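Q: I have 364 residues here and want to know how they pack in 3D. Can you give me a structure?
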Amino acid sequence: MHALENKTVLTDGQSKGYWTCQLLGWGGYGFVYFLAVLVPLHAAGPKQFAGDLAYCLTGLLGTHLLRSRIKLRGWSEITYSKLIPRLIAGALLVGACQAFALDGVLALEGQLHISRQDQGMAIVGVTIFFSALLVGLWLAIYLSVQAVRRRRTAELDALRAQVLLREAKLLSLQQQLNPHFLFNCLNSLRGMIDEDTRRAQEMVTRLAELLRSSLRQDQRSLITLEEELATVNAYLELESVRFEDRLRIRRDIDGGAASALVPPMLVQGLVENALKHGIAELPGGGELEIRIRRSQDRLQIEICNTGTLRYDAAGIGTANARERLRLLYREPADLSLSEEPPGWVRATVSIPYQTTEAMCEPSS
């Protein structure tokens, strides 16, 4: 919700800034042209002022329509070989409209005879040329501002993604260092030391691995699924000791997905939610199923558990995960919660399938 509000405020601010620049730019140009060109030539009268006003208003409308076209067609994302001809054509078109608006007003007032080939059309041609240059300058400034804005947005998104990753690690660490969690782990260890020393040692190792992964100050925004599942497995081994036969785990993981890149603590956070808000609240325990599949260019992750969906239990962890997905992926990435079939809660994540090798390949 906060991200949406911030985005709305930012969009409103950009729109106001754009129209301010448009009005000041074209209005300032018309004013300077009237005073610096027409007045010295003793041609500054109501008729010339009307032509100058028509010229600037047409330029304002034309550049605004060009901007809409650029945004609608995504011109800022295409190659220069395709972009430049379109910009030239757009500048010439707007320049022609400006020229005919100016000369049309003057012709109506008897100041210019457009029908005369030897004079009127020559003046129109010169006007189109200089108008196109002016619109070309406008396009260069607009696209430069957009490029700087996109770069700054990408930098801010990267910083926000890092902050959210730290929050996810902190939430996970708080969950794992929860006194109740540690008490159960240590209590199970005490009873296991005499009965099954080897298993007790393994449990200590898993606890150390889990805490190490949470405390690790890793700046990577993406890790391999294999690394993420190692943390998940350590967590589930500890919880299996606590839940005993009340926790039944099933894994259905595509063997070819191990090298896929995923946000750190994403699967881990969903598994923790499934246990904390689902299975832990059932007297008889329940089942947890982890399904991970590669479907063409997508990676599908499903965490299912027996229980009832409580949207208030999703809390900041789910909101954090959704925001991280939005910041990390330009392509559609989604996290949804549903209760299907009845008695089962399903968390579904769909992200682009990426690997370290693919990201390192040079672009063609």
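Q: Anything worth noting?
A: The two ends are 39 Å apart (CA to CA). The chain has two domains: 19-155, 177-360.
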